[in-house]
C-alpha cells in the first residue's frame, strides 16, 4: 500500500469509472482484486514456490556468538539459567535461538509479501487462553519479537519447530515430514479460504478450542480425546487464584510472594540497599503511566486494585535474562487478588534483518503487534517505560495478566497423529493472523492450489532441523569447555 498524492486523484477517479486499476479510499491506495491476484502470482518470479526449500548456512555463522552478544543486555545472574534451559534438549535450544534463525532466514528467498510477523512462531508459542468474553480461544500467544516482515519467515519458524520437536519425541523421518506438511497445508488452505472472505469476516474470525476439539474427535483415539478434554477443563482453573496459591503465602496476616531465588525474588530482596518505600513509589509511578495505555473502561477496572507486592520472575526460555516482574494486586483486603506480569521488551531479533520498528517504545511495538495478529487479547494488555534506580537506564515493558486460563499443549507427550492435527491447527491459525495485516488475496494467489509450497517448507524444515542439532551441539561444547556458565536451577 502507498500513500495517495494530489496528483493521483484524477487517475483514481478514472480507475473507479473504468473499473480497472487501483481504487483508493482515504489516503491509502487499495488495489483491485485482479491486481492483487496478479501481484501474488508475480511474486513467484522473485521467489518460486520451490525456492523455499533452500537453506545454505553462511560460512561465517556463529550462533553461540550471536546468543552471547544478545545476552549482554540481560540480567547477568540469570544468563546461566537461560543456558541451562536451552541445553535441556534440541527443542528447548530452538526455542531460545530465535536470533540465530532470524539471521539465517534473512539469507533465504522471499516473495516480497509482508505481514505482521510473530517473529518466534514455534509450536509452543501457540496455545489457549481466556477471551474477554470468557471463552477458551486458541491463537498465537507470544509477541516479544513481533515486527512486519516476509510472511515466509513465520511459516518456516513454525515448520522447523515441528520437525525439531518430532525428532525430540522420537518420531521417524516420515512422521516428521507428515507433520510439517500438515502445517504448510493448513496455512495455505486457510489463506485461500480467507481470500474469499470479506475483510470484516476475517477480522472477527477466532478459534474456540472446545468446538475444534469436537471436530477432531473422530480422528483421535478415545483415550487421547478424554485426556485432552481434561487438560482443557484444567485450563479454566489456571487463573490468578491458582497463581496466588502457588506463588504466595500469608505472613502476619498479609499475603506475600514466596522468594525462590533466582527464579522468583521479591523486589525488596533484589534491592536491599534501597528504601522499600522509594521502590514502590517508583513502581506506582510506572503503573500510572501504564494505565494510560488502556482503554477507559479497563483503566477504570484496574483502578479498583491496589498494589501489594512486586517480584522478579524468570519466564520462558528465550526470554530468560530479560527483566520480567509479577505484580500482586488486590481489590478487597486480600480476597480479590490479581496478578499482572510486566515483561521487558527489547528490540525484536528481526529488526536488523526486516527493518526497525516504527514504535520508539518496544513495549508498544509488542502490544501493537499482538493486537494486530490476535483475534482477542488480554483486557489489561498495555505498555510502559521504567527508569532503573541502579543503572539509570530506561527500559520498555508490556503488561498483561500473569495467567488467565492459559493452556499450552504438552509437546513432549504428543504422538505423531496428535502433532499432525496440532500442526494443521497452528498453520491455519498463523494464516488467520497474517491475513489480518497482509494482503490475503495476493498471498493466496502466490501459494496456489498445489502442494508445492507445503513440500518446499517441509524440505526446509528437515534441513534446518539438522542445522539446529549442530547449533545445539555447539552450545553444549561451549558449556563443556567452560566458555559459558550453566545453572542447574532452571
What does this structure look like?
- It is a single chain.
- With 490 residues, the protein is an alpha+beta fold.
- It has 2 domains: 47-236 and 411-480, no CATH class; 240-401, no CATH class.
- Helices cover 48% and strands 15% of the residues.
- The strands form 5 sheets. The protein has a 6-stranded antiparallel β-sheet.
- Strand 8 and strand 9 (254-257) form a beta hairpin.
- Helix 7 runs antiparallel to helix 18 (416-437) and helix 7 (151-168) crosses helix 20.
- The longest helix has 29 residues, at 452-480.
- It is globular.
- 43% of the residues are buried.
- The model is unreliable at 1-25 (pLDDT under 50).
Draw up the topology in text.
Layout: H1 9-18, E1 23-25, E2 28-30, H2 33-46, H3 63-70, H4 79-86, H5 90-96, H6 98-105, E3 114-117, E4 126-130, E5 136-140, E6 147-150, H7 151-168, H8 173-195, H9 199-204, E7 207-208, H10 209-215, H11 222-235, H12 240-247, E8 248-251, E9 254-257, E10 264-266, H13 267-270, H14 276-291, H15 296-302, E11 306-313, E12 324-330, E13 337-344, H16 351-354, H17 362-373, E14 382-387, E15 394-401, H18 416-437, H19 440-447, H20 452-480
Antiparallel strand pairs: 1-2, 3-6, 4-5, 5-7, 8-9, 10-11, 11-12, 12-13, 13-15, 14-15
Helix pairs in contact: 2-19, 5-7, 7-8, 7-18, 7-20, 8-18, 8-19, 8-20
Beginning-to-end CA distance, first to last residue? 46 Å
Radius of gyration: 23 Å
Specify the helix fraction band.
40-55%
Mean pLDDT: 88
| Structural domain tally | 2
- How many strands, which pairing sense, and closed or not: the largest β-sheet? 6 strands, antiparallel
Task: Count helical runs.
Answer: 20
Per DSSP E runs of 2 or more residues, the count of β-strands stands at 15
Shape: globular
Strand order of the largest sheet: 10-11-12-13-15-14
- Percentage of β-strand residues: 15-25%
Which structural category do the helix and sheet elements fall into? alpha+beta
Question: Regions with pLDDT < 50 over 5+ consecutive residues?
Answer: 1-25
Amino acid at each position: 500500500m502507498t500513500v495517495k498524492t494530489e496528483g493521483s486523484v484524477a487517475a483514481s477517479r478514472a480507475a473507479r469509472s473504468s473499473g480497472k486499476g487501483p481504487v483508493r479510499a482515504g489516503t491509502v491506495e487499495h488495489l483491485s482484486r485482479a491486481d492483487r491476484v496478479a501481484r501474488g502470482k508475480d511474486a513467484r518470479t522473485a521467489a518460486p514456490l520451490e525456492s523455499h526449500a533452500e537453506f545454505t548456512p553462511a560460512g561465517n555463522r556463529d550462533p553461540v556468538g550471536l546468543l552471547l552478544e544478545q545476552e549482554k543486555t540481560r540480567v547477568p545472574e540469570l544468563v546461566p539459567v537461560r543456558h541451562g534451559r536451552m541445553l535441556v534438549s534440541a527443542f528447548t535450544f530452538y526455542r531460545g535461538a530465535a536470533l540465530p534463525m532470524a539471521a539465517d532466514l534473512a539469507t533465504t528467498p522471499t516473495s516480497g509479501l509482508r505481514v505482521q510477523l510473530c517473529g518466534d512462531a514455534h509450536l509452543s508459542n501457540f496455545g489457549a487462553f481466556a477471551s474477554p468474553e470468557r471463552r477458551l480461544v486458541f491463537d498465537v500467544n507470544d509477541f516479544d519479537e513481533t515486527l512486519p516482515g516476509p510472511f515466509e519467515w513465520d511459516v518456516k519458524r513454525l515448520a522447523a519447530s515441528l520437525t525439531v520437536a518430532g525428532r525430540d519425541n522420537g518420531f521417524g523421518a516420515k512422521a516428521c515430514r507428515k507433520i510439517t506438511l500438515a502445517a504448510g497445508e493448513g496455512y495455505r488452505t486457510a489463506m485461500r479460504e480467507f481470500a474469499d472472505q470479506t475483510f470484516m469476516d476475517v477480522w472477527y474470525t477466532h478459534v474456540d478450542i472446545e468446538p475444534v476439539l469436537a471436530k477432531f474427535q473422530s480422528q483421535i483415539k478415545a483415550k487421547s480425546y478424554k485426556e485432552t478434554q481434561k487438560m482443557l477443563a484444567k485450563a479454566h482453573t489456571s487463573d490468578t487464584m491458582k497463581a496466588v496459591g502457588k506463588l504466595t503465602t500469608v505472613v502476619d496476616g498479609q499475603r506475600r510472594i514466596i522468594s525462590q531465588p533466582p527464579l522468583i525474588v521479591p523486589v525488596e530482596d533484589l534491592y536491599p540497599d534501597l528504601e522499600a518505600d522509594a521502590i514502590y513509589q517508583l513502581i506506582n509511578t510506572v503503573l500510572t503511566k501504564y494505565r494510560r495505555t488502556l482503554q477507559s473502561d479497563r483503566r477504570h477496572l484496574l483502578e479498583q486494585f491496589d498494589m501489594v507486592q512486586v517480584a522478579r520472575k524468570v519466564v520462558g526460555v528465550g526470554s530468560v535474562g530479560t527483566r520480567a516482574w509479577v505484580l500482586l494486586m488486590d481489590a478487597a483486603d486480600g480476597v480479590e487478588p490479581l496478578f499482572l506480569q510486566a515483561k521487558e521488551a527489547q528490540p525484536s531479533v528481526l529488526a536488523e534483518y526486516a527493518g526497525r520498528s516504527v514504535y520508539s517504545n518496544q513495549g508498544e511495538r509488542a502490544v501493537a503487534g499482538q493486537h494486530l495478529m490476535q483475534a482477542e487479547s488480554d483486557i489489561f494488555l498495555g505498555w510502559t517505560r521504567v527508569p532503573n534506580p541502579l543503572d539509570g537506564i530506561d527500559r520498555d515493558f508490556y503488561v498483561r495478566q500473569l495467567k488467565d486460563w492459559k493452556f499450552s499443549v504438552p509437546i513432549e507427550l504428543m504422538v505423531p497423529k496428535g502433532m499432525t492435527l496440532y500442526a494443521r491447527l497452528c498453520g491455519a491459525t498463523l494464516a488467520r493472523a497474517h491475513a489480518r495485516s497482509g494482503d490475503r488475496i495476493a498471498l493466496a494467489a502466490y501459494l496456489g492450489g498445489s502442494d508445492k509450497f507445503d513440500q518446499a517448507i517441509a524440505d526446509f524444515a528437515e534441513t534446518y532441523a539438522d542445522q539446529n542439532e549442530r547449533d545445539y551441539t555447539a552450545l553444549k561444547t561451549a558449556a563443556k569447555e567452560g566458555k559459558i556458565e550453566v545453572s542447574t536451577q532452571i
